[in-house]
Each structure stands twice: as structure tokens, then as C-alpha cells.
Amino acid sequence: MHGDLQRVVDAVAGRVGRAALIEDRHQRVIAYSAHTEPLDAVRRTSILSRHTTPEVAAWFRAAGVHRTRAPMRTPAAPELDLLPRVCLPLLHADMLLGFLWFVDADGSMSDADIRDAETAAADVSRLLHRADLLGDLASEREAEAARTLLAEPPEHRARAAAELLADGVVADDGPVTALVVQPVGERATADPVRAALEHALVLTRRWYGTRSALHLVRRDHGTLLLCGGEAAHRPAASVARHLTAGLRAAVGRVPGVARTVVGLGETYPRLADAACSYRQAVRTARIAARLPALGDVASWASLGVWRLLSMVDEQQVDVPEVHPGLLRLLNADGGRVLAQTLETYLDLAGNAHATAERLRLHRTTLYYRLQRVEQLAGTNLKDGNERLTLHLALKLAQLSGVG
């Protein structure tokens, strides 16, 4: 990639008649053209040390270079020995990959020059994005091994795990925990969403440790496998929080995506067992996507009855078949309030005192509502089987969008 970038940066410098420099999103220098003009201290330091100093990076961030999606001019900062510049953000699917910089001390860089530079910026963006997708972190061989690890028969998974360990892609043979990212919204499977998922997963993987994790992006979700001893220092829940922060920055800008959820599977002892954790994480994420009350991060261990219900195909759920009285209850005047009262009562194991406190009701009002439930649903709440059947029916109604 570096040779391609060097050719692009030299070509654009020649076209606009001034020196050019490319940085990644962290303002680390990737490539630069020959510099014959006078340099300020910032450019000189960047070239010599291959990165921008923290003080200068903070100044540029405050100036808005990380937020802009179009070329912008930055003013001089004499206290930093910084001359005016033109900054072109390097973008792919609205994700910031880096910056193309020109020193413009006298403001002579014209709009036509900037348009020429934008063409070069698009070429640089494609090269940087390709490096993210095809570099060491996401090579096709690695991705194929990860797909096998998650989907194929056990003997194939064992071979995939051995291959990943032999190639040094992962350092340790377990323990392994799967995190599944599920976008929610009408454009959840669009290409920009998948690109944003890749971006967030790569950043989290780098933060966690590239040889302690694997990632894979599929049609409607992304997967991060945490492998090895790093889990003792960065447990899956903290990784999920880091990932959700990255998702808000990457996926949150894509129209048509309401939110993203992360499902965590259980931890298994060996890399070849990753498929078990992955299946749990997929089910957890899909339940959390349908039930906002579970939050943006949910774990298989904390799902309770939803673990069982996650195995039910919600497209095939027929609530009247589970309990015919529930639809009568839901369709009655005030039925939704009564159903909420019933669910809280059943969630709290039939404890009237705790239910009244949770719903902030007088005990008499609660008893009246429960009596109405019995009348409308044709049930007897003193019958344990009836309570169990109603409880399951209420949960399935939520899952299928009836409740």
C-alpha cells in the first residue's frame, strides 16, 4: 500500500504545486511528498517523528478537523509555530480514515487546487480502506478460518483453530467468548452499515489486542471473538462497553439505523468451542434488538426465560395457541395496562406487595386489576400452570410484536 500512497501524494503535490502530507485518523504520518518550501515546526516534527505531537493534535481536534466532512482551512497558531493549512478529510462511507494536508501560508491555494486535491483524497481513501479490509487484521485467509470456526462441523472447527494458532493470528487456545453486534433499523444490512461495523470491530480489536481477538462481518451482524489470557485484564463486559462507544461513533451516523445492540455468549475453554458461545451471542443480540428494555448490551447468562424463548422462531409464534385468553385481554379496553400489571405480578413471583410497590399502586387497585385479568382472560391466577402459561404467552407476545 505504501508505494501506491507515495505515488498519489507525489502526484497531487505536483498538480497543486505545494507539498502534501497524509496522516491516518490518529494523525500518524503515512506518506509525504518532497518539501522544498519553508517548513513550520509542526510539519518538520511530524515528518521527523512520524506523528503529530499531542498538543498540536488537540489543537487540530478543537479546530474541528475530526468533525469535518469537507475540505477546511485551519488558521495559524503562532504559539505552536503552526502555519495556516488546508485539510481534506479522508473518508469511506462517512467514516474518517485520515487527513490530506497542505501548508497554505499565504492563502494562495485556490478552489481549483482544492478540487484537484479532492480527487487525490478519494484515491487515498480507497487505499486506506483497502488496507483496513485486506491487511493483517482482516485477511481473507483469516476470515475464512473464522467462518469455519463458527459454522462448520466440530472436526473442521478444530482444524480452523489449529490453523489460526499455527499462523500466529491468535496467541492462545482459549478461553473464548463471542460478542455479536446487531444493527437495528430499516437499513441494518446496507453496505455503509457493514463498513461501519468493520470499522468499529477493528478499532476494538486493536484496543483489546490483535492476537487476542478475531472479528468477522456477516450480512446482518458483526462478531468479535475474545481469545486467550487478555480476558483476565479486560473482561467481555468492558470490551462490550468499549465496542458500543465505537459503534455510536461509526454506525450512529448512518441513516436508517436506530441503534445497535451487543450480545455476549458464555466463555468456553478452547478456541474450537467458539461456535457454542457464538450461537448464544447471536440469540442474545436478536432478543435485545426486539426488546429495548434489555439495553444495548445483554448477556446470555442474564437472559433468564429469554434463553428458552430465543430458540423459538418468532415468525411462527401463535400467541392464541399458547394461551387463547391473552388476546382477549390485550384487545379489551385498558387491556394493555392490565397485561403490564399481570406481567409485573408474574415477574415478581406473584408477590402482591412487591407488585404494588413496583407499579406504585394501592393494593386494592392491584387486586381489582388482577380480578379483571382473570375475567377477561378466562383464567385462574391461583393455578400454577395457568400462571406459567400466561407468563410465557406474555413474553412470546413481546417477542412477536403482539404485546
What does this structure look like?
This protein is of the alpha+beta class. It has three domains: 2-134, Beta-Lactamase (2-Layer Sandwich); 137-309, Nucleotide cyclase, GGDEF domain (Alpha-Beta Plaits), CATH 3.30.70.1230; 314-400, PucR C-terminal helix-turn-helix domain (Arc Repressor Mutant, subunit A, Orthogonal Bundle). Helices cover 50% and strands 14% of the residues. A five-stranded antiparallel β-sheet has the order 2-1-5-4-3, sandwiched between helices. A five-stranded mixed β-sheet has the order 7-8-6-9-10, sandwiched between helices. A hairpin with a 2-residue loop joins strand 4 and strand 5 (95-103). The longest helix is centred in the first third of the chain and has 24 residues, at 111-134. The protein is elongated.
Radius of gyration: 28 Å
Low-confidence residue ranges? none
Determine the structural class based on helices, strands and strand pairing.
alpha+beta
Identify the CATH homologous superfamily of the largest domain.
Answer: Nucleotide cyclase, GGDEF domain
Span between termini: 54 Å
Task: Work out the count of structural domains.
Answer: 3
CATH uppermost class of the largest domain: Alpha Beta
Order of helices and strands: HEEHHEEEHHHEHEEHEHEHHHHHHH
**Strand percentage, roughly?**
5-15%
Largest sheet: 5 strands, antiparallel
